[in-house]
Amino acid sequence: MTSPRASAAALRKAVAAATPALLALGDASGVPRAPGKWSPREIIGHLVDSAINNYSRFVRGQLEDSLVFPGYAQEDWVRVGGYQEAPLEELVVLWQALNTRIAAVMETTPEHARSRLEQLMSDYVTHLNHHLRQILE
Question: Three-state SS string across 53-116, please?
Fold first, then answer.
């Protein structure tokens, strides 16, 4: 398993590499890659939602013994978030800021919570990289 510190380093690296590329998408960010699929802008919005939900999980996982977290209806969150119409720069800056804070929380995870959070943290970074590849490759 990947330690929280290693996940934080991987997250920081991914965010630093992707931020300029995401900002450079421009108007193309509103065009879905295939019919019925999210546009890159909506995928960035989904990553914002994922960051919000996972930040809560990483904090609660340090404060509570239980790792039972509420799920979220990702399609509904993207729709309600209005990401298709949101300014690209706003979404990218929000995504970057949230992930910077998440990396800090990962780095300071106390010993007692590391073993129960390390897989969740590693999975978060894997999920983020998966979606970045969808957008940028």
Answer: HHHHHHHHHHHCCCCCCCCCCHHHHHHHHCCCCCCHHHHHHHHHHHHHHHHHHHHCCCHHHHHH
Indicate the length of the chain as a whole number: 137
14-42: pLDDT as tens digits: 999 999 999 999 999 999 988 999 999 99
Question: Which has the closest alpha carbon to 25: 14, 13, 41?
Answer: 41
- pLDDT single digits (tens) 80-99: 999 999 999 999 999 999 99
> What are 76's two structure tokens?
């509904």
Nearest to 1 by CA among 132, 135, 126, 127: 126
Helix or strand (DSSP H, E) at 121: helix 111-136
Domains (range + CATH), the chain? 4-25+39-136 (1.20.120.450)
How far apart are alpha carbons 119 and 20 in whole angstroms? 28
What are the CB-based long-range contacts (under 8 Å, 24+) for 31-34? 33/134
Q: In a 3-state reduction of DSSP, which class is residue 31?
A: coil
